[in-house]
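Narrative of accomplishments. A recurring question from our advisory board has been how the design workflow behaves on a single, concrete structure rather than in aggregate. To address it, we present the structure tokens for one chain from the evaluation set, followed by the sequence designed for it. No filtering or post-editing was applied between the two.
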């Protein structure tokens, strides 16, 4: 076999501060060959990103590195600053998670694409613009000659990430490190970026390290997988073996905690507890406190397992690898959905939204006069019944969050009507709306930003009671303690401050705060988007338990269609301020009839490598239109694989679809044909 592009042996990284060193990476061995994609997965704090930073020589001076990192014959751990600079400019390309922080906001995209090649004398300055245009064209950015002089803020999120990929691959590096390259992207943009990354990797023959927590992305992209936990690789092997027959309990637990687009609706199996902090690793096997196989075995508590063979090219760091059950083994509750409250559709809905419009003025000039309107929400109608979960899905910028905030009265509706519990609340004043909000509450996406950092957790949960003057009436401290227990937190944590909690615990505090006033409706705005997959499963189970116990209604806003499938009763799909399809969950996922819904579902990665190259993928062309100047006719027609002349001239009505509990706004609505239509090249196998 040819020599690997990258070889890492016995890598250890510890961060040295005022106290004892904190071990972030503990004895990692890995290698990557040309034309190979190595996927690295694991929860936050497992050491994935620290490993990639060590490989690229980007660790801070406080990091103490031991072991060997060899890239193309160069020992990275012993290289001087100039060698590392040259190596990063020529041999390694980096694609970071957030393109917004990767790109310099004061330089044009064209300058940033070529400055590395110019600095390393691989490109003349007078040829920079031509090369930048060529790079943008290679990553499918429209109008590259016009875009090359624009700044990062003028690019969408997906375009920024494609520009970063172009920058990383500009010099044809031997190694590409992609650290969570699609985490912040919509599913359709994620599909575009992954397709682009795979194509460019195949064209250049580069070795790729793909770091992600999304096992579906790993199943679609990787050739081999390394699973990290507690700073170590606990399992590695070919992607087919890792998914079909994992030999470490942590890998099995990750796979079982996933809500899947192709799975049943059985209750998720989250990994109990929290990932260990690098400064407080348990003795023996770091996973044993959360492990079902370890149980009370003294060996797991006292002896750290070595990474040993568990099959051909398959390694596992588990004392009892032969006892690890397959992820397809029967599970409690398989084949049956969790018990859900009965939804009475014959009664009046708890929430009714009719033709809701939210338009924001666009102002320009010295006098800041209005020159137009941004149509964030442009005619949304939906209902939510008591005890029901309605999922609201769509790409970023489609108006999902604005719809939720308009219902809560956090943004003012421009038109339409909102009824809650039979009362029109569209134009209520602040005082009256505050009383309505006692019965509807909002759970925000980012638990880090939604909690006041200078208040204790108990004070945060008690705040709604104090605002409404109900603290003593509803039980005071006893009520707060019961709320903590309700969301799975011990009351002893009430005195802690937000920075002392993990992300999942912070989200539980946000849910407890939302429940303080005994609401009837929760608006959940991407409540699990920022969480690890195992913590995400805990929160989803918690929300289902609370709904069953309290008969809550949920408006569940998300872009993750796998999560929405698991938790929702009905699903509404939004595009550019309007709902384009709405249906019962089973019907929508089994037989979507709107081309946009079909595109969204086809783009969701499924954690099954056997479907690679078999599953049908519809790749949407172009970017989401500007809501300040939406296209005439059907707003989706510029990206639609079924569009006709009628679509560009006539807006479709939102009508029932025959034979299904579905309504759709499409002139050509209907299920996908069994095979791709040759007339529509966007539909690909």
């Amino acid at each position: 076999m040819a020599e690997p592009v990258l070889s890492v042996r016995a890598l250890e990284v510890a961060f040295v501060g005022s106290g004892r060193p904190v071990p972030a990476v503990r004895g990692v061995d890995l290698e990557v060959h040309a034309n190979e994609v190595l996927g690295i997965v694991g929860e936050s704090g497992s050491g994935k990103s620290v490993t990639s930073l060590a490989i690229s020589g980007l660790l801070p001076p406080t990091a103490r590195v031991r072991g060997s990192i060899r890239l193309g014959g160069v020992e990275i751990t012993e290289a001087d600053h100039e060698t590392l600079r040259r190596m990063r400019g020529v041999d390694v390309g980096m694609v970071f998670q957030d393109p917004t922080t990767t790109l310099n906001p004061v330089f044009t995209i064209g300058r940033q694409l070529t400055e590395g090649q110019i600095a390393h004398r691989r490109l003349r300055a007078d040829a920079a613009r031509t090369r930048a245009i060529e790079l943008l064209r290679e990553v499918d950015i429209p109008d590259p000659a016009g875009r090359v002089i624009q700044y990062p803020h003028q690019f969408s999120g997906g375009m920024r990430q494609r520009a970063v990929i172009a920058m990383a691959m500009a010099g044809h590096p031997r190694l590409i490190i992609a650290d969570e390259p699609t985490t912040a992207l919509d599913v359709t943009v994620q599909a575009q970026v992954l397709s682009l990354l795979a194509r460019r990797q195949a064209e250049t023959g580069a070795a790729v390290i793909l770091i992600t927590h999304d096992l579906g992305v790993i199943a679609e992209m990787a050739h081999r997988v390394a699973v990290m936990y507690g700073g170590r690789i606990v399992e590695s092997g070919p992607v087919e073996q890792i998914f079909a027959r994992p030999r470490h309990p942590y890998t099995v637990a990750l796979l079982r905690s996933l809500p899947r687009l192709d799975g049943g609706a059985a209750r998720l199996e989250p990994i109990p507890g929290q990932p260990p902090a690098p400064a407080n690793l348990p003795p023996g096997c770091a996973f044993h406190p959360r492990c079902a196989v370890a149980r009370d075995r003294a060996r797991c508590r006292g002896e750290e397992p070595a990474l040993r063979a568990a099959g051909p090219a398959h390694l596992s760091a588990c004392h009892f690898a032969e006892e690890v059950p397959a992820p397809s083994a029967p599970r409690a509750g398989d084949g049956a959905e969790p018990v859900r409250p009965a939804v009475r559709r014959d009664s009046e809905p708890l929430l009714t939204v009719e033709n809701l419009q939210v338009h924001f003025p666009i102002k320009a000039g010295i006098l800041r006069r209005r020159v137009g309107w941004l149509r964030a929400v442009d005619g949304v109608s939906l209902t939510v019944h008591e005890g029901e979960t309605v999922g609201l899905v769509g790409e970023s910028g489609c108006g999902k969050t604005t719809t939720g905030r308009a219902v809560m009265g956090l943004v003012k509706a421009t038109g339409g009507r909102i009824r809650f519990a039979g009362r029109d609340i569209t134009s209520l004043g602040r005082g009256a709306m505050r009383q309505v909000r006692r019965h509807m509450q909002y759970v925000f996406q980012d638990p880090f930003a939604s909690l006041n950092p200078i208040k204790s957790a108990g004070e945060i949960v008690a705040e709604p009671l104090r605002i409404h003057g109900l603290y003593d009436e509803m039980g005071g401290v006893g009520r707060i303690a019961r709320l903590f227990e309700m969301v799975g937190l011990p009351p002893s944590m009430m005195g802690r401050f937000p920075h002392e909690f993990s992300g999942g615990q912070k989200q539980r505090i946000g849910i407890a705060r939302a429940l303080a006033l005994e609401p009837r409706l929760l608006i959940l705005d991407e409540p699990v988007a920022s969480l690890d997959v195992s913590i995400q499963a805990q929160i989803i189970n918690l929300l289902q338990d609370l709904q069953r116990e309290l008969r809550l209604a949920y408006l569940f806003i998300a872009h993750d269609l796998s999560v929405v499938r698991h938790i929702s009763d009905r699903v509404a799909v939004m595009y550019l301020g309007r709902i384009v399809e709405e249906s019962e969950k089973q019907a929508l996922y089994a037989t979507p009839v709107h081309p946009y819904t079909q595109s969204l579902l086809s783009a969701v990665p499924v954690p099954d490598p056997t479907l690679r190259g078999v599953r049908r993928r519809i790749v949407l062309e172009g970017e989401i239109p500007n809501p300040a100047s939406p296209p005439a006719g059907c707003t989706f027609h510029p990206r639609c694989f079924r569009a006709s002349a009628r679509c560009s001239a006539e807006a479709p009505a939102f009508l029932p679809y025959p034979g299904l509990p579905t309504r759709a706004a499409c002139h050509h609505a209907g299920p996908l044909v069994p095979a791709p239509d040759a007339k529509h090249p966007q539909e690909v196998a």
